[in-house]
Amino acid sequence: MSAVETRSATTVSAVELDSVSKVYGSGARSVTALDAVSVGFARAEFTAVMGPSGSGKTTLLQCAAGIDRPTSGRVRISDVDLNGLSEKLLGELRRRRVGFVFQQFNLVSALTAEQNVGLPLRLDGRRPNRVVARDALARVGLADRASHRPAELSGGQQQRVAIARALVIEPEVIFADEPTGALDLAAGRTVLEAIRTAVDEDAQTVVMVTHDPGAAAHADRVLFLADGRLAGSLARPTAEQVAAELARLER
User: Which stretch of DSSP H or E encloses residue 46?
Assistant: First the structure.
């Protein structure tokens, strides 16, 4: 059994960052995007990550997901220390244990919703199971759209297909980067409700970067960054509380 396949029931956090720093460039031109950040993301918890522009939100997401390697510090997903993984094993971990949802839906236009959902399984060398793919679509309220192609779906429906695609591998954590950023208010609310359901009913862990206080108010916890450092958190806040904290950080 590989390191990627080994799991531990005793691990408390789905994701944990320990003194993670990320520096781009060197010398006088270096930029510190993350500065010794230590934080854990609990299982079956929905965390929103917010902060002013340039605060390190996306860098935190990329380091936590294994998309980018930190300059120093350690990242763990469940029982796996990402620092010790080769690029091959890191790719295997991302395919099998991590789900991704981005602002752009990244659906394949020639494939149906069902086929798009099954794509992560195919890319991992597994034969997509039609029942599993349709079940994932049902979990985001699109059971009746399985045979539709992206052009036949609204923006909100396409993003829900993207969420189903992330769910189909039964990941330990889903990382979402501005998943409602390209949607109108009503479609965004529907997408956030689908994410909320994945947490409440399927015990998924979700880490979402957003700039929208209304979106963040759907989370169990809102984590704030400023200048690459942790700058506080709020539990189950209202949109107004989130907006007030952001305004304080931007002064």
Answer: strand 46-50
